[in-house]
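Chapter review: from sequence to fold.
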Amino acid sequence: MWIAGDRLQVIDSALDGGRRDDVEQLLADIFRSGRGEGAVPTTCPTCRRDLVRNPLPGVGLHVSACPDRHGAWMTSDVIETLHRFVAEHTTLAATKRHQLRVLNRLLAVLAVTVLGAIVFTYPERVVVTAVETVSRYYDWRVSESYWPSRGLVYTWWQIPTKTSSIDVHDELQYFHRLVTLLDDGITNRLNIDGVLKTRRAPAEYAALYEIYRGKQLDVLARMRRIDVPDTLKPIHARMLVATEAQIRFYRSFLDAKLEDPSADLARMLGDPALRSASGELHVVWDEVRRLYPGLDAETGAAIESHLCGFDVI
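The token string follows.
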């Protein structure tokens, strides 16, 4: 059977590229056109040049092709063999695709199982790693034009209004306002802390500290305006001292960073302002537990997590 030149080229290209579906479609067209062979030609019906033996890529079959690519003569045996080859390959490919899908599903299940085992075996480590990864991302993004809200791991907990065990209205209102202020204070602290962990130009360190200082002084001013019940005035006084000390500490940290870019928090642990800020916050939490021995878990978690987020260490 005579195969037009363009069809032969498509078959050659499809076999060489492994596109078996294209070959199958061409063979179907050839079968529909009839099987009669007649005498096997020796010359091209278009240019009358002698046909030459031409191999089909990858299947070990040959056709008699025109040197000028006008077409080729393909016997019915070659067509049948090529058809069987494509059919067998298609079946094999389908089997492999099914096996690959099954393998992918097994790998997905295995991955989920392993991840679940890690999470349940080391939950704290997983959470800490996730938080640290997010923190590093934001540490680098903080700039004079971008001051992201942060500290969700600390600020997620809020004091319940109706179910809190703090049943004195003024005292409950005080803690509500305090933790709301600390939401902003924690954001400011985490941003400047992250800035000082990253490598930046000295001028950028200084500019970002001034942004932090302005925002934290605003938190301090709002903290001074809170109505404080007499019972909680000692706690409030310590919160003011802790906030002032924190601002001084990050000034000291900035100075150390400008003098030596390798300066880090570990080197600053002995700083008096840091020790004062952290110590005051610990005393605040101790005083809260003393005043409210029956403090419910949700209220306690909200207050403690905010104090922890506001603490440098």
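Two observations follow directly from the output. Residues 76-121 form the longest helix (46 residues). Residues 124-130 have pLDDT under 50 and may be disordered.
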